[in-house]
Write a structure and sequence with these properties.
The structure is a single chain. The protein is an alpha/beta fold and about 280 residues long. The chain has one domain: 3-Layer(aba) Sandwich (Rossmann fold), CATH 3.40.50.1820. Helix content is about 35%, strand content about 20%. It contains 9 helices and 8 strands. It has an 8-stranded mixed sheet, sandwiched between helices. Strand 3, helix 2 and strand 4 form a beta-alpha-beta unit. Helix 5 packs across helix 6. The longest helix has 18 residues. The N terminus is likely disordered.
């Protein structure tokens, strides 16, 4: 949905503080999903060289000595911002080395985008998205996984994961195909445009992957394109790829705290499913 139309469910309260994530982290600890205290997570602003330039990004990993499975987290149409930094921190606290890039580095830095305020010009954001061609996504994915694998905090003996939100869903599919020997698990959350009528449709890439998939679909996206979930299921079955495809009782954007559509109960369910996906497949 988000790639082609303005969705009010994406607009966010960027004044959201870390208290929300402290509460979520506490709940995760009680449920046994948090492996490390969020306060011990190391966060570093990094630059990643790609064939098209230099991407600004945020890197997270548990503090102390050790190495953990790598995860690439693709943000939604608003890009790298405070809420995705907190999501990266939360995931790292569960025992992962996480990279959250600015997918729009070809057009603007995340700092410049943030300077536009909480509700930036959506047409400009779509312009940034359209500047990323499919081949650019693929080369970025290779560069990001290469960067992760160069980190001492990454356990390269274990498979890597990739997850994406909104436009990040299709980008995650492309990543799994571009770096198929590294990606063991893919999470798509209210992914926009997973099934299209073009030869470049993300669902057509499934046979090129070697990953298990989790596709969490928004109810209003399903209402708009009710056959997409069936097309996805059929594609996974034909490629013999393990996958969970589920429509959630929440609207597009529900997984991102602070968004107008944020649904904590549904978001926590999706996060728990992601946790199980990674524990099972990033080995």
């Amino acid at each position: 949905m988000c790639d082609n139309e303005i969705n009010s469910g994406l607009f966010e309260d960027w004044s959201l503080t870390r208290r929300t994530f402290v509460a979520l982290g506490a709940a995760a600890t009680l449920s046994g999903t948090a492996a490390y205290a969020a306060e011990s997570v190391v966060e570093t602003d990094v630059s990643v060289k790609t064939p098209d330039g230099t991407a600004d990004a945020a890197l997270f990993h548990p503090g102390g000595k050790g190495a953990w499975p790598a995860v690439l987290m693709w943000p939604d149409i608003f890009g790298l911002r405070p809420v995705f930094r907190e999501m990266g921190r939360r995931l790292a606290a569960q025992g992962y080395t996480v990279l959250v890039p600015n997918p729009f580095y070809r057009s603007a830095t995340s700092k410049d985008i943030l300077a536009g305020g909480a509700n930036p010009d959506m047409q400009k954001m779509f312009g940034y998205r359209n500047a990323i061609k499919d081949e650019g996504v693929d080369s970025d994915a290779i560069a990001y996984l290469g960067f992760l694998d160069a980190q001492a905090a990454t356990n390269k003996k274990k498979k890597a994961g990739v997850q994406g939100y909104c436009m990040g869903g299709p980008l995650s599919f492309r990543t799994a195909a571009a770096v198929s020997n590294r990606i063991g698990a893919v999470g798509s959350f209210h992914g926009g445009g997973l099934v299209t009528t073009t030869p470049a449709s993300p669902h057509l890439l499934i046979p090129k992957t070697k990953a298990a998939f989790l596709c969490c679909i928004a109810k209003n996206d399903d209402a708009r394109a009710p056959t997409d979930k069936d097309t996805l299921k059929a594609a996974f079955a034909a490629a013999k790829r393990p996958a969970t495809v589920e429509v959630y009782p929440a609207d597009h954007g529900w997984c991102v705290p602070g968004s107008a559509a944020y649904n904590m109960e549904a978001a926590e369910k999706a996060w728990a499913e992601l946790t199980k996906l990674y524990k099972t497949n990033l080995v």
